[in-house]
What does this fold into?
Amino acid sequence: FQKENLEEIIRRSVQIKMEVVREDAREKGLRQILNFGHTVGHAIEHVSGHLVTHGEAVFIGLLIESRISFEMGLLSEEDLKRIFNLRPGYSFPNFSFEKIWESMKVDKKNLNHAPHFVLIEEIGKVHKIESTFSVPIEKELVEKSFNLCRINSALL
It folds into this structure.
């Protein structure tokens, strides 16, 4: 994006969020899309003792959930690269995956202590399964995606 477009990007983002919340005030369906990146992001915030900001943590969550989407065959490699290039040279925190996973398991939006993730099919298009946008993902796939994102951050 261009810095001169930042104000318009923020204005449009707030407008979209307001529309989604207005349509699904009780978070029974569509509003789940606003959790993209937040499952991992909240865990990173928690594990860091809130030294990692909410924005940085959610950005890292977006990267990991995008990588999960790619690994599942939902997201193209081109879109994955575009997402990773939004912030080249970002610093991936050096936290244990196990600590992050344990923190994700107690997120208030989970069912049966299973972390739920919002996945994407392309930039701007969330993956929907039946009537939900938030799905459980096996620990092994989350860990693989976490580790690949950590490696990618070192290469950028």
Notes: The longest strand covers residues 116-118. The chain has a mean pLDDT of 86. The two ends are 18 Å apart (CA to CA).
